[in-house]
Specification:
8 helices, mainly alpha, 153 residues, Arc Repressor Mutant, subunit A, 2 domains, elongated
């Protein structure tokens, strides 16, 4: 994953999971292999979350933060750490908010979100698009001298 601290956290999480499930894990032919796989899966999840977070920032038209700072802001609890962003998300419609939270914070794919909310894939994509546009308008300061155009970057 490229970050020794994150890697250490992933390994610690894997050992914690093994400890909690020791009755089952201890009976495996290779308990250490199980721990290794869990650590690798955890590191992969962290990496995917970082990549998706960066993509979301770029889609919203904001400058991405340096990776180390972004990594500090992301947490396993999947909560908003930026109060301005949390306030902006709170202004979305209930449907848009649900789609944004499931897709970006719970790291669900469009297909998974559509199944969870009983929506079509197209509806999820539509709500994500509308939510990103609304968040962009809320979060980006507008130049008061420039004419406002719907859909303008």
């Amino acid at each position: 994953c490229g970050d020794p601290e994150v890697a250490a956290d992933c390994v610690a999480d894997a050992f914690e999971r093994a400890f909690v499930r020791w009755r089952k894990v201890g009976q495996l032919d290779d308990p250490l292999g199980w721990v290794r796989r869990v650590a690798i899966h955890r590191a992969t999840d962290v990496h995917r979350r970082r990549v998706r977070g960066r993509r979301a920032v770029l889609r919203l038209g904001m400058r991405p933060e340096p990776p180390s700072r972004m990594a500090q802001q992301m947490s396993d609890s999947m909560q908003f750490h930026d109060s301005e962003l949390a306030a902006a998300v709170a202004e979305l419609s209930q449907q848009q908010r649900a789609v944004v939270v499931l897709h970006y914070l719970d790291d669900m794919s469009v297909i998974e979100v559509s199944a969870a909310l009983s929506l079509s894939d197209g509806a999820v994509k539509y709500h994500l698009h509308q939510a990103r546009a609304r968040l962009r308008n809320i979060l980006q300061p507008h130049d008061s001298d420039a004419p406002y155009r719907e859909g303008a970057p």
